[in-house]
Amino acid sequence: MNSAFKSTAEYDSVPNPFDVPLSHIDLSDHRIPNSGFQLEYYKRIRAEDPVHFIEDSKFGPYWSITTYKDLQEVENHPEIYSSDWTNGGCLILDGMKLGFMAMDDPRHAQQRMTLMPLMVPSNLHRMGEAVRERTREILKNLPRGEAFNWVDEVSMPLTTRMLAILLDFPFDEEKILPVWTEWSTDVDAGAHPIWGKRRKEILEDMGVRLRKLFNAKKTQEPVGDVLSILAHSEHMSDLSQEEFQGLMSLIVVGGNDTTRNSMTALIQVMEKFPEQFDKVREDRSLVAAAVQETIRWWSPVAHQRRTVTQDTELSGKQLKKGDKVVLWFKSGNHDTSVFPDPENFDILRDNVRRHMAFGFGIHRCFGARLGELQVVILLEEIMNLGLKIKTAAPAVRSDTCMINGFEEQLVVVED
Amino acid sequence: MSENYKKYQCLNCEFVYDEAEGMPDFDIAPGTRWEDLSDDWICPVCGSEKQDFELLDE
Fold this sequence. Notes:
Chain A is of the alpha+beta class. Helices cover about 45% and strands about 10% of the residues of chain A. Chain A has helices at about 30-35, 40-50, 70-75, 105-115, 120-140, 150-165, 175-185, 185-190, 195-215, 225-230, 240-270, 275-280, 285-300, 330-335, 370-385, and strands spanning about 50-55, 60-65, 80, 150, 305-310, 310-315, 315-320, 325-330, 390, 395, 405-410, 410-415. In chain A, the strands form four sheets. A five-stranded mixed sheet of chain A has the order 1-2-8-5-3. A three-stranded antiparallel sheet of chain A has the order 4-12-9. In chain A, helix 5 (about 120-140) runs parallel beside helix 15 and helix 6 packs antiparallel against helix 11. By secondary structure, chain B is mainly β. Chain B has a three-stranded antiparallel sheet with strand order 2-1-3, with no helix packed on it. In chain B, a hairpin with a 5-residue loop joins strand 1 and strand 2 (about 15-20). The two termini of chain B are about 15 Å apart. Chains A and B meet through loops of A and loops of B.
C-alpha cells in the first residue's frame, strides 16, 4: 500500500554483493529483500566484515551486526547497547517511540511485567481456542482451484483477528488494524519527506482511536486484553498520549505483522521442502519444530537497533558512545557456525529452538509464544483439512528494511 | 544445611531460577523446586516457558 513512491524497477539494479566494494554495502537498502541477494549480502558481510560500518545511508552512519555470536553479545549487554528512544530507539529510523521495546530498564522491565499476564500459558490456551475456530473458518472458505493472495485471504485476516482479540477491538472495525500495522512498520516511509507526514497523521489517528477504547476500559471490569490490563495497572494507566501511541504501534506491529509473515513463509517452506512436512504429517509432535524452523529460516523481523552508551569493543572493532548499531537477525539465523546448511530447512535440527528470530535477552519478543501458537494452529489445521497448497507466482516481498515481509503470495488450494 | 537446590537457566535471556532463592517478589517462596513451579510460570525476564530452560551444572 505504500509502494506508490517506490519503483519496482529498482530491484533489478541491486548488484550481486560480491561485485561491489565492501565499504559500499548498506544492509538497510530497502531493495535488498526483493533483489534475490539478501542471504548473499549477509554471507559476504559475515565472512569479511561481521561488524560492518557504513558511513552513508538513508538512516545515517551505523554498524551492522551479523554473526550469531555478536548478536548475542550485544543483546546480553543492554547497559552498553541501549534501546531507549531518547538515545535513538530500537529501529534504524531514529526516535520512534515503540512502548517498552524502545526503553531501557528499569522502565522497560516494569512495563513489560505489567503486560506479562497476557502471555501465561493458560491465557495463551484461551486465546488459542478462538484462533483455532477462526483458522478453520477461513481455511474452509478459501476458494479451490483458483489463484488468490494468501496474504490477503489468510495471513492478514488471521493475524488481524488475533490483534482484535488482544485489544478487544470491535470486529466490525478490524479492517483498520492492518492499515495501522503497515504504516507503523514502514520506516522507509518514515524517512521520506512526504510520506513521513502521512505516516505521522495515520499513527496519531490510531493513537486517538485506541485511547478512546482504553479510557472506556477504566470503568469496565478487566477482561484479560491489553487495554484492560493497562487501564487497571499501577504503572501504565496514565501514559502520555505520545507514549501510549508508541506502545500501540508496538502492539500492532509485534502482534500482527511478524506473525502474518511467518504464516506466508510457511507456504513457501511447505512447497520447497515437502519431505519435511511429510514427516510432520506422520508425526504431529513435530509441528512445533516445523514452526520454529520456519521462523528461523524466514526471520520475519529484519532488524533491531541499539545505541552505544559507552566506548566499547566488539569483535575487534572500536565502537564509540553514540554509535548506531543495527542487529540483522536473519543473518544470525543463517550463520553456519550455529546452523549448518542454514538455507536448508531441517525440522530435526538439535538447536531448532535456538534461533534469534525473536531476538535475545531482555528485549526478546514479548509475543513470541503467541506468534508461534498462531502458526502452529495454522499448520495443524492445514493438515487436518488435508489441504494441498501450491504457489502460483513468485512472492512479492515488502519493500522495507524493517521486516522480511510479503505483500503478495499467490496460491492455489485443492482439497 | 544444603538441600541440594538446583539452578535453571533460560536459554533465551540467561535469567537463572535458583530454587534456593525462589522469587519472593512473585510470591514464590525460597526453596520452591523447579517442578513445583506453577504451570503458568514463565521466565520473568523474557517470557519463555520452562522447556527453554536448562539445568545448570553445579
